[in-house]
């Protein structure tokens, strides 16, 4: 079990600002710490800045005309802002992109093997393929199928499995629940948990689905409009009245003046 008091911080994001197209300020000073061996959730609604934060970490913003203009990003204490994504993979950090992105014309197995492209220990790759298949038996059944013809859930499994094939220390997982039926979401999160516990892989996962993410994560950060507005152990966030009201859709106050209460409380807390 993760012991926050003793664990080393693997990834540290310090007060970063991200601007798109030289003018659009999207992240307005985001800081977060990802402890080794933990599952950390980055929560928030659509457009809050979750994907931008993950892409800033894995240096994928350039292709979108985005830039980190302030702050620093450290991995094991080392500045990683100027590394290209392949160098970051070598350091042990890999991102699973939002929307899955398989190579549709390759088979499931060929897709998984592309994840090992930076590795030189070819002998161990077959063993790791078996490891991936133990977590995703479904992918073993489908290994000769063309990835483009597999279901959304299977493609999400392929995307995570491919990341595992790079032997990562840390996986940045963007919106794994997106577009999947609740049962499948649960299955994916169970696998994330198992990989975390048994392989010791550290996760930073971005999720709009606060409910499921806070049940599996150890710690959470809530982003709103490019700022962290709240953070804490997942258990505390789950029990926090504002989180319940804003993100979990549970409120003791009823729905009558939901909007008013919400904007009032937000103004009071975030801006006062
Ligand atoms: N390439 C881009 N160019 C300009 N604005 C962008 C770009 N990508 C995202 N944004 C804007 O940045 C904000 C945060 O987006 P994003 O990081 O994708 O949020 P989330 O992943 O939390 O839904 C949104 O307002 C979005 O419109
Ligand atoms: Mg996103």
From TrEMBL:
Source superkingdom: Bacteria
Keyword Transport (UniProt): yes
BP terms from Gene Ontology: L-amino acid transport
GO MF, any single term: ATP hydrolysis activity
Pfam families: ABC_tran
Entry keywords, A to Z: Amino-acid transport, ATP-binding, Nucleotide-binding, Transport
Protein name: Amino acid/amide ABC transporter ATP-binding protein 2 (HAAT family)
Species classification: Bacteria, Pseudomonadati, Pseudomonadota, Alphaproteobacteria, Rhodobacterales
């Amino acid at each position: 079990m993760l012991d926050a008091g003793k664990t080393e911080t693997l990834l540290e994001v310090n007060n970063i600002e991200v601007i798109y197209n030289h003018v659009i300020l999207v992240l307005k000073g985001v800081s977060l710490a990802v402890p080794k061996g933990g599952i950390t959730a980055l929560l928030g609604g659509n457009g809050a800045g979750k994907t931008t934060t993950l892409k800033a970490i894995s240096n994928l913003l350039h292709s979108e005309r985005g830039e980190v203009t302030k702050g620093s990003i450290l991995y094991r204490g080392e500045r990683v802002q100027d590394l290209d994504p392949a160098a970051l993979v070598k350091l042990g950090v890999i991102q699973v992109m939002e929307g899955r992105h398989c190579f549709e014309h390759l088979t499931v197995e060929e897709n998984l093997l592309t994840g090992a492209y930076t590795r030189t220990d070819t002998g161990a790759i077959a063993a790791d393929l078996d490891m991936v298949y133990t977590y995703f038996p479904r992918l073993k059944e489908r290994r000769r199928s063309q990835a483009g013809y597999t279901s959304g859930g299977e493609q999400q499994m392929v995307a995570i499995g491919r990341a595992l094939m790079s032997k990562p220390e840390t996986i940045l997982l963007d919106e794994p629940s997106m577009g999947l039926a609740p049962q499948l979401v649960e299955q994916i999160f169970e696998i994330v948990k198992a990989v975390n516990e048994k392989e010791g892989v550290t996760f930073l996962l971005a999720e709009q689905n606060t409910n499921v993410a806070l049940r599996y994560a150890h710690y959470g950060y809530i982003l709103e409009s490019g700022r962290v507005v709240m953070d804490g152990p997942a258990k505390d966030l789950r029990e926090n009245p504002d989180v319940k009201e804003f993100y979990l859709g549970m409120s003791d106050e009823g729905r009558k003046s939901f909007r008013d209460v919400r904007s009032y409380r937000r103004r009071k807390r975030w801006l006062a």
